[in-house]
Every structure is written in C-alpha cells, then in structure tokens.
Give the backbone structure.
Amino acid sequence: MQWEDILKSKHQTFVFSEQKVEKNLIDKIVEEIHTKCPSKQNRVLYNLKVLDWSDRELRLDFYKSTERDPINKPGEYNPQVLAPYLFVWSSREIEPMTNRRGEDSNPEYNDPMWQFVVTNMEIGICSMFSVLSAQSKGLSSGFCKCIYPQSIEEKYGFTPLLFLGIGYSFDLPKRMYYCPINNRYMEVPYGSEVKPNIDNYISFGL
C-alpha cells in the first residue's frame, strides 16, 4: 500500500466489524514495533499489552474503564475499545545503565518528571507507528485516552495510559454500535471537533 493510499483510508475508527483479524497481521505489527519503532537510546519506557477477546471479562473491564461521564451521563463508553484487538500502553520500570567506570550513563532517567515526559513521548511514537502499520495491512484503528484507571489498577495491578483498538472498520447507520454493558445499540458519543487552523500551530522558522 502506497503512502497516499494510507492517507486516504486513515480515519479514527469507532465501530469495528466482527470479521476475524488474522493473528499473523497482529504478530507482524508487534514485530515491526520491536525492530523498527524508534525509542530513546533503545531503553523503551513503556509496556505494550496486546489483548484479544479470549478473556471476555478482562476486555469488558477495560471497556468499563472508559465510561465518559459517570455522574452526568452514566452508561456512555468509548466503543473503539471493543475492537477485536486492543493495544494497551503503560509505563515500564527500567534498570540503570552503567558505563565502564560503573557510573550511571543516563542519570536523567532518575528524574520522575523527565521520565514521565519521555514515556509519554515514546508511547505517542509507538502508537502512531502501530496505526500506520495496521493501516498498511488493511486494518483500521481507533485511539482512546479517556480512561478511568482505578478499577484496572486495583484488579490488574497497572495503570493504562493509552488504548488503541485495531480491526476491520464497520459503520452502522448513524454510527451505531452494540454496547455489551447496556445490552442495546447506542449511538457513538462523539461530536465533530476540528483542529485549529494550520497557521496557529505550524510555522516555518521562529
């Protein structure tokens, strides 16, 4: 698939079909992440968990963690998390790297704020790399950052930072999807947000 074709077909996907995603395609995405996705000094400050639906309870727990407004709009979730595969990024603890003199080669990693910033930067790079890799294989994807992690932390012992659903896209009329918590079809709870004008955030020169 050419770059122009990837751009034409790329969009945020909210509803996925039940069409089976070949496991070898997911394996290939993971392999490409490991061999080609850049990471600062190859330290890799994130964990990536790849989840299918073999554990339905687990997947529904992750779906429940995306409830959009539990107080004012209970029962509205992010449907892209129901994709056949869900990529889940979280932070990863790394060991100090010492030089020949036994000194810490990268003391900046000991600064929690510095590590937090770089971790999120790397997750951004890896997640977009995953999107483009999936797109080149005829798959679609949908980001989700609206996560209430407390229940995941308590039950599974880690804090998810970003979700990415991957599968084959499917749009029902009015962008409807079947919610397995409410047991009914619901409309995708999204508006039509637009980016600012290009000149507001991109410039050539200072």
User: Anything to note?
Assistant: The chain has one domain: 3-200. The chain has a mean pLDDT of 91.
